[in-house]
Amino acid sequence: MVSYDLLAGLSAASADLGETLDKILPRANGQIEQRLFQAMRYSTLGEGKRLRPFLVLSSASLFKVSRHSALRVAAAVEMVHSYSLIHDDLPAMDDDDLRRGKPSCHKQFDEATAILAGDALLTQAFEVLADEDTHPDPRVCTDLVRALARAAGPHGMVGGQMIDLAGEGQSLDQAQVTHLHLLKTGRMFAFACEAGAILGKAPKSIRMALRSYAHDMGLAFQIKDDLLDVEASSEELGKTAGKDIDQDKSTFVKLLGLEQARDQAKMLCDQAINHLSCFDDEAEPLRAVARFVVERGR
Amino acid sequence: MVSYDLLAGLSAASADLGETLDKILPRANGQIEQRLFQAMRYSTLGEGKRLRPFLVLSSASLFKVSRHSALRVAAAVEMVHSYSLIHDDLPAMDDDDLRRGKPSCHKQFDEATAILAGDALLTQAFEVLADEDTHPDPRVCTDLVRALARAAGPHGMVGGQMIDLAGEGQSLDQAQVTHLHLLKTGRMFAFACEAGAILGKAPKSIRMALRSYAHDMGLAFQIKDDLLDVEASSEELGKTAGKDIDQDKSTFVKLLGLEQARDQAKMLCDQAINHLSCFDDEAEPLRAVARFVVERGR
Lengths: 298, 298
Known about the structure:
- Two copies of one chain form a homodimer.
- Chain A is mainly α and about 300 residues long.
- The first copy, chain A, is about 70% helix and about 0% strand.
- Chain A is built from 14 helices and two strands.
- Chain A has helices at about 5-25, 35-45, 50-60, 65-90, 105-110, 110-130, 140-150, 155-165, 175-200, 205-230, 235, 245, 250-275, 285-295, and strands at about 100, 100-105.
- Chain A has a two-stranded antiparallel ribbon.
- In chain A, helix 4 runs antiparallel to helix 9 (about 175-200), helix 8 packs antiparallel against helix 9 and helix 10 runs antiparallel to helix 13 (about 250-275).
- The first copy, chain A, starts with 5 loop residues before the first helix and ends with a helix.
- The model of chain A has no long low-confidence stretch (mean pLDDT about 90).
- Chains A, B: Keywords: Isoprene biosynthesis, Magnesium, Metal-binding, Transferase.
């Protein structure tokens, strides 16, 4: 086993991704609608772990995919992630004033601009995936579009967000909370990991191994998020903390207790890494992500 | 010239489209997230002119495209149109309580559900276009995805909506209002018309002719909308009328006056029909649409 420096890897990926996003996103240039472009950039180009793009780049590198293709798909994934955060933060949804230590999009701009910026990011992400500059084979592009739409749509991220909202005030059991997070965050993690395999035209079994890795890692990520939400103070986390408990949401911590939630996250991390047994050292970045997800501190 | 019965054509198209949408849209079945599916269906399956799907079907029939392919693309266009209406009606946007004579989505459900239903419809529309069931040639699918994303994205419909919001309270000149509507409604009309040509793998010059038709027809449509907004009462129009004037928006009627706005709409209608000179009788449905757009009553 090689020792992989995850933080250096994340940081390098984030820098490259920033450049790619800067080229893709529309530029404010005195147009009447420039406020829209500013909001899209504000919410996408800021700081952030950029874990999902890193997963795209790491999975793509398993199949020797060109960095250019991988970066464009990573950018599309980050645009969809940013759109989801913008809409989730709206007053009618989670009503969060802070995001990544900055005012959330609707606080920095206004609600209408935030709704439109989210819509525009989601739409443009599909334009990026369908572009031959992303991959010359149109079959690869349609595979990417279809997989992203499924991951983000009514049976994916948006469906998960609906369960999250509908579940407020009623108590969900562990199976329901697991299903919620599989949809809300797991499907997009799975797309990010599968995207590299799609770009590399990998066989179905390999695609499934990467999806399984992502599902377990994503669930571990969510449990850790619940743990951090309880443990962290507002300042340290950069978003309003303790909200889930205030809103009486069903979290893993509430269902399992702190101790068992920690064990569960650890178990899922090991399971995620097991799914990567078909890969050699080249999958070290993905293994490091799984470890990081449960070990990251407050 | 054959005489084409537009109302019969619209009605037949609308029935077929309803069936296609019913198959595509997720079905409420007791899931926790079924409210999302109900909202998607509520806003997409209701009454409505369904002019955009009709344009897809009419342009597709110029190139002997299979009805199945055309209906799926028409469904995607209607889903994107419905999403845009749902988001436009939100309190933070145009704040409309009525849509097509029914409570708008956020009134029937709630704001969060309306935001998510719009997001889900937009996302699923791309899944439909990228599916080989829509067209077996992936190059056709990527063309469709890219063209729709451009029509609906920051340089299309969403950009137009931003101009519309940013332009409130400041007076836009005629060029700016024309640009606004070219983006806000024209680009989606253009996609609907171009879609048939993409499905039929028509040469670029034919694609451009259909786009030009759509741009002129779309602008005529918007001017007529402005005229109807002034003329119609709330009850007859099925949405809150006179809003544009209340909100001090720059409309064609305000810029040109009633008389000249009517002349302009008529002129654009003729110009739109001229763009169809490369087609024979098979383009009668599109010519009839252009005439209908300016002649429709209150």
